[in-house]
Amino acid sequence: MAHPSEAGAEHIPGDRIEVPPPRTRVWRGGTLEAHDFPVAQVSDYLEQDDTVVWVDLCAPQRADLRVISDELGLDPVAVEDAVSRHERAKIDRYEGYAFLNVYVPRIRDGELELYEVSAFLAKRALVTVRQGPGFDIDALVKRWDESPGVDIASTGAGYLLYHLLDMVVDLQLDAVQALDDEADEVESMIFDEAFAVREIQRRSFRLRKNLVALRRVALPMREVVNTLLRRDLRMVAPELAPYLQDVYDHTLRVGEWTDSLRDLVANLLDTRIALQGNRMNEVMKKVTSWAAIIAVPTAVTGFYGQNVPYPGFSSHSGFIVSSVIIVVCSVALYTVFKFRDWL
């Protein structure tokens, strides 16, 4: 499977953006106890009972991950995947934790931008690694604080991961909706009388490129969520199964929607070619009809321009007869062509 960047849609900021410091949180008994503490204290909190810890790192280097790697005992291969760009959307299992990689899409000025987000999931710890500030981590924290129904004390870090995946899939649905709206606009342009060929070609190509890029990162989400749902792996608490099943249903909807949009875009391109051919046929009919009408006075004047005697030769009556023939034949041809909708 090709990387998303090969589709030209991967968003990599060109300017150096100020990287925010790591964010940390710890819950005890389902209640927020502390936040923004040093990463080096993560293991101390995890040694205590009934605690759940979250760490967020934005655009980290390998050295930045060394501390959290030592705190949680992360595998070097997983750490390498977390700092590498263009990893495919996936989930890998390791001893005592799992590594996930997903993509958050956003449509801006008609272009699809993809933001890579990685996560390390342990029983009582979640570490999120963002390649840049494009993913709104504050919105995720707000979901954690405002979402009722699930007790974080009984579900552990899986509760945090569920909201992360739910937010990612919701944003993918928003992106598909935006592409669907773009397809409707292209369809309207195709059937418009103006028929701006160059603009239709540009927008249809951009739509197809964005759709392919989104589909490449959205389809693997089925495997990610389905792996978390497997009871034999026991990666999340059983209480989260109904919530993850809802996320899984949304991933199916994204996949089906992208498939239908892909077929729609292909049909739009075929329709554009067919309509363009029909318009060309209409132009050719009109050109041919006018050529036939013009051929009449050409033939008559050519006949009367002969240097041999004929009825009306060198007389005023000959001019009148030739003019009448031209007008009558031209009007007759125009009427016939108009009746047959050739003009």
TrEMBL record:
<feature type="transmembrane region" description="Helical">
    <location>
        <begin position="287"/>
        <end position="305"/>
    </location>
</feature>
<dbReference type="GO" id="GO:0005886">
    <property type="term" value="C:plasma membrane"/>
</dbReference>
<dbReference type="InterPro" id="IPR045863">
    <property type="entry name" value="CorA_TM1_TM2"/>
</dbReference>
<protein>
    <submittedName>
        <fullName>Magnesium transporter CorA family protein</fullName>
    </submittedName>
</protein>
<comment type="similarity">
    <text>Belongs to the CorA metal ion transporter (MIT) (TC 1.A.35) family.</text>
</comment>
<keyword id="KW-0812">Transmembrane</keyword>
<keyword id="KW-1003">Cell membrane</keyword>
<keyword id="KW-0813">Transport</keyword>
<keyword id="KW-1133">Transmembrane helix</keyword>
<dbReference type="Pfam" id="PF01544">
    <property type="entry name" value="CorA"/>
</dbReference>
<keyword id="KW-0472">Membrane</keyword>
<feature type="transmembrane region" description="Helical">
    <location>
        <begin position="317"/>
        <end position="337"/>
    </location>
</feature>
<dbReference type="GO" id="GO:0015095">
    <property type="term" value="F:magnesium ion transmembrane transporter activity"/>
</dbReference>
<feature type="region of interest" description="Disordered">
    <location>
        <begin position="1"/>
        <end position="21"/>
    </location>
</feature>
<dbReference type="InterPro" id="IPR002523">
    <property type="entry name" value="MgTranspt_CorA/ZnTranspt_ZntB"/>
</dbReference>
<dbReference type="GO" id="GO:0050897">
    <property type="term" value="F:cobalt ion binding"/>
</dbReference>
<feature type="compositionally biased region" description="Basic and acidic residues">
    <location>
        <begin position="8"/>
        <end position="18"/>
    </location>
</feature>
<dbReference type="InterPro" id="IPR045861">
    <property type="entry name" value="CorA_cytoplasmic_dom"/>
</dbReference>
<dbReference type="GO" id="GO:0015087">
    <property type="term" value="F:cobalt ion transmembrane transporter activity"/>
</dbReference>
<dbReference type="GO" id="GO:0000287">
    <property type="term" value="F:magnesium ion binding"/>
</dbReference>
